[in-house]
Amino acid sequence: MTQRLAAVPSGARQSTLRTTNLGLVLRTVCASPTPTSRSEIAAATGMTRATAARLADELVAGGLLDEVDRDAVEPDALPRRGRPATPLLPGARFAALGLQVDAGLVAARVLDLRGRTVAERVEQGDFRGSDPAVTFARLGEVTADVLAGLPADLRLVGGGLALPGLVDEGAGVLLRAPNLGWSDLPTADLLARCVPAGLDVALGNEADLAARTVAAEAPGRAGPHRDFLYLSGQIGIGGAVVLDGRVVTGSSGWAGEVGHVCVDPDGPPCTCGSTGCLELYAGRHALLRAAGLPLDVAPGQLAELARSGDPAATGAVESGAWALAVALAGVVNVVGIPTVALGGHLAELAELLDPDARAHGLGERRGVDDVLAGRPAVELQHPRQRLPAEPDVDV
């Protein structure tokens, strides 16, 4: 018997095609490192110029794309052939909210579709062993302060919360965060007190989310490095493995946690239950203690003292460099990734760590990835910003 398939209404097919093409145009503009013309969109997508122009006009009307003055664009970024075209950039009216809770800070940052920071606030503190409700209440105050200063026409479309531990992203549960002393913590109710009602906030590991800021320079735009190991230096050390631009978490979710690689079996006990873990030697607090410095000193002060020849600071950095090199040499040889990007306090110490790293046989070594240079310790550059699957052009 011949089976007949139900016909899809022509209007539905056209609506789906239009939505798909709107998303394609938006992603094309977001992925371009320079302003893009309508004709360049047509060439990149295979659409006719008329179709590309019409879809771009809809996105401009909805605020998802912005037309910019040619005089405000660098000459090298403008098309060299044909009639002068109006350049397009991702719209500045849409943004995402990035939140972070770590053992040493709570923070909030808002970024637009171009990857630009609209507003941010970082509050240092000691949140180890803290009451989650109290800490999230503090995060809520920081977030409210950031949101209060936003332009009235800015629209938040989503966000992300970065936590230093193993998370179940789908369930929204922090399974284990040794440095915070938290486990099996549902975050939905806690987050509801921190963000505007109805805002979708995804949960993620802080090192994994930070690594995505290296893999993608801006929403939809790939960075220069597709395969690398990322280390996030906070009070402890987080890590992530990135292959072909994607973070690899493994079946357990702990892939890339270099901070808990054992560098000395006879070393001190770690909060994870093991002994001699890397972060006990190269974590921020470990380095400051070894240098005889207060735990609340300004970021970069340890590196400045080590460069000036201070014996205690130099000894602390050398010990941390040794531990880091031992851990990385094994990890890099196993995963076959010769590029290492450092964030947080490790970025500050990168040039001082390099000699030991080379001595332990690392291949191509990047102490500080260019994408990370000059960035603050909190890694919230791209907090799960999502290009809308169905662009709302009626805003």
From TrEMBL:
Residues 25-66 form the HTH iclR-type domain. It holds the Pfam family HTH_IclR. One of its GO terms (molecular function) is DNA binding. It comes from the Bacteria. Gene3D superfamilies: 3.30.420.40, Winged helix-like DNA-binding domain superfamily/Winged helix DNA-binding domain. One of its GO terms (biological process) is regulation of DNA-templated transcription. Belongs to the ROK (NagC/XylR) family. This is HTH iclR-type domain-containing protein.
